[in-house]
Amino acid sequence: MMHIDPQLHRVLDGELPSDDLTPLQREQSAALQRAARLLAEAPVGSVAARVMAEVRRPPLRLGQRVAQWLTERHAVTIAVRPIWSLALAAALAAIAVIPSRGPGPVLGEQEGIAQFVGRFPDARSVEVVGSFTDWRPGAVVLRDDDHDGIWRASVVLPVGEHEYMFVVDGERWVADPLAGRYVDDGFGRQNALLFVRPLAR
Amino acid sequence: MTARRLVALLLAAATPLAAQSGFARLAGRVPPPALSAIDSILVAAHREGLPTQPLIEKAFEGGAKGVAPDKIVLAVSTSADQLRVARALLREAGEAQPTDPAEVTAVAAALSRGLSPELVGELTAVLPGEPTGPALHAVADLVGHRFAEDSSVDLIVAAAQSGLRGLRFLDVAAAAVQELQRGRSHAAALAHVKSLLPNVPPPPRPAPSTLSRARRVQPGPDRP
Amino acid sequence: MIGAGVLSATDREPTDGEVVAQVLGGDAEAFGIVIRRYEAGLLRYATRMLGHPDAAADAVAEGLVRAYRHLATCRDPGRLKSWLYRIVGNRCRSHLARRSTSDLSLDDAPPIADPQDSEAATERAEQLAQVERALETLSPEKREAFLLKHVEGMSYEEMAAVTGERIPTLKMRVHRARAALLEALKEYE
């Protein structure tokens, strides 16, 4: 989009005088004022007669108002619950069939659950390394118990924003393809970005 | 005492107390050639009142990913610049002084996702007194799916005006993306979600039965 | 002349507050003064918002009738102008929400010159058409913000009363509208 210097905005808003505008700013200001002048030309026509005809009409009695309402069209809005993405639904379904490892940890108010799923059919190990592990490997290890190449883990994390990558076989750093949200890591790669919500809502 | 630890201690003795904890944490996690330069960046950031934890995390990340020392220094320096820009944007938006470090970090993260400073500044101005991270990331989510920047901002502002806050903004963005995936045009997807406000459904909650807690691995002699 | 009975003995124009009081006191004809005073600006605003003079006339007429019927709810008659623009703005927004994108009415063809027109008038008509096309590329929110600020000459406070938006939001929209309009005008050069 065209860039307009903040100083010009302030001049156009009447907060600063226009004395110190650069030639480009003057050109931009002139273009905008020219456009406004053209748009200010009033269109021909009047609605006075039409409005006064309604103003002079005697008010409807209640029964007439109801009849009028019934014959008019009214906009009706129906809220439709959207269907969630198939990838996420499949991932959640896949996680649900993993056997329980016990009662699991009790969550604090500022903790939520993050679910990691990745398809690495030939991998020997898959882990998640990220801001929540201080970027140390070995803290979050995914499992592929049925050897179908789908690696999974559900982890309790603090509520908020986290960056991470998968590390495959201890050496290959891979962006999570299911994350849907990425940020440049500053090293030529992309970290996945995750928002963890409190479980108790 | 190893030579590495001696160097770290000597360098630590030469730096201000406030940054020593960062420097001490960096030693062993970041290639030695990068240590001094990163320490200087941390000291400067601390003096300016910028949050230093994101910078330390960026250095850790570079070390973990095996990145060359000069590139780690560059990334940490860039992150510090983004924090400066973020704080300036918050101050321009009228945020109270001193600016909340968490807010500065959140705005910097949004900038690193490619949102323009102008857009970030505008959004923080229209949501005063609110943590802006989720709203900014919601806009970034939409822009990442090729929704127009200004239309994305309009949707999130409308969501705020309908009473939604915090992570609910991410639900709004997710709903628009889903409408796109269902075949609607970008404009139709935004209009549809706007019509649902504030009743945009949250995502399904995950089942807690298979949970584990992330283990913080303690540093040892064989592990950096 | 519509509403002539409201003029005072010194023939000064009555204030908006005086006209409102007159209408609420039972003098329906006095509403004609409101129409005369604000019709041109409202029609201009609605025409620029909707890009279609007939739709604009409908929006303004319906808005003014609604204003007459609900005049007692105008909390501050001294801010009648903002209140009227708010009502008509809402009608424009409803119209835009119902309208599909295929309904755009601005003709892409250049204006047909009337042989009677002077060269200057023809050129002006072409320039206006260009500006109208550029305005049409703005989102309704940005279009409205630009029109209220630069065409209707409102302050940000008045705009806040018309739109119900906060001033920082309106400033953001006006700033972005300026940039977008300049960009669009550049493409049509």
Structure described in brief:
The complex is a heterotrimer of chains A (201), B (224) and C (189). Chain B has 224 residues and is an all-alpha fold. Chain B has helices at 3-14, 17-26, 32-47, 53-64, 69-92, 101-112, 117-126, 133-144, 149-161, 168-181, 186-196; one strand at 211-213.
Give the key terms.
heterotrimer, B: 224 residues, mainly alpha, 2 domains, 65% helix, elongated, C: 189 residues, Rna Polymerase Sigma Factor, Chain: A, Arc Repressor Mutant, subunit A, 8 helices, globular, disordered N terminus
Topology of helices and strands:
The complex is a heterotrimer of chains A (201), B (224) and C (189).
Chain A: H1 6-12, H2 23-39, H3 48-56, H4 62-71, H5 86-96, E1 111-119, E2 126-130, E3 140-141, E4 150-158, E5 160-168, E6 172-174, E7 182-184, E8 190-196
Antiparallel strand pairs in A: 1-4, 2-3, 2-5, 5-6, 5-8, 7-8
Chain B: H1 3-14, H2 17-26, H3 32-47, H4 53-64, H5 69-92, H6 101-112, H7 117-126, H8 133-144, H9 149-161, H10 168-181, H11 186-196, E1 211-213
Helix pairs in contact in B: 1-2, 2-3, 3-5, 4-5, 5-6, 5-7, 6-8, 8-9, 8-10, 9-11, 10-11
Chain C: H1 16-24, H2 31-50, H3 53-69, H4 80-98, H5 119-136, H6 140-151, H7 156-163, H8 167-188
Helix pairs in contact in C: 2-3, 2-4, 3-4, 4-7, 5-8, 6-8
Describe what this molecule looks like in 3D.
- With 201 residues, chain A is of the alpha+beta class.
- Among the domains of chain A are: 6-39, no CATH class; 86-97 and 108-196, Immunoglobulins (Immunoglobulin-like).
- Chain A has helices at residues 6-12, 23-39, 48-56, 62-71, 86-96; strands spanning 111-119, 126-130, 140-141, 150-158, 160-168, 172-174, 182-184, 190-196.
- In chain A, strand 7 (182-184) and strand 8 form a beta hairpin.
- In chain B, helix 2 (17-26) runs antiparallel to helix 3 (32-47).
- By secondary structure, chain B is mostly helical.
- The longest helix of chain B has 24 residues, at 69-92.
- Chain B has eleven helices and one strand; from the N terminus they run αααααααααααβ.
- Chain B folds into two domains: 1-100, no CATH class; 113-201, no CATH class.
- Helix content of chain B is 65%, strand content 1%.
- By secondary structure, chain C is an all-alpha fold.
- Chain C folds into two domains: 14-103, Rna Polymerase Sigma Factor, Chain: A (Orthogonal Bundle); 114-189, Winged helix-like DNA-binding domain superfamily/Winged helix DNA-binding domain (Arc Repressor Mutant, subunit A).
- Chain C has helices at 16-24, 31-50, 53-69, 80-98, 119-136, 140-151, 156-163, 167-188.
- In chain C, helix 2 (31-50) runs antiparallel to helix 3, helix 5 (119-136) packs across helix 8 (167-188) and helix 6 (140-151) crosses helix 8.
- The relative contact order of chain C is 0.11.
- Residues 1-9 and 101-115 of chain C have low confidence and may be disordered.
- Chains in contact: A-B, A-C, B-C.
- Chains A and B meet through helix 5, strand 4 and strand 7 of A and helix 4, helix 5, helix 6, helix 8 and helix 10 of B.
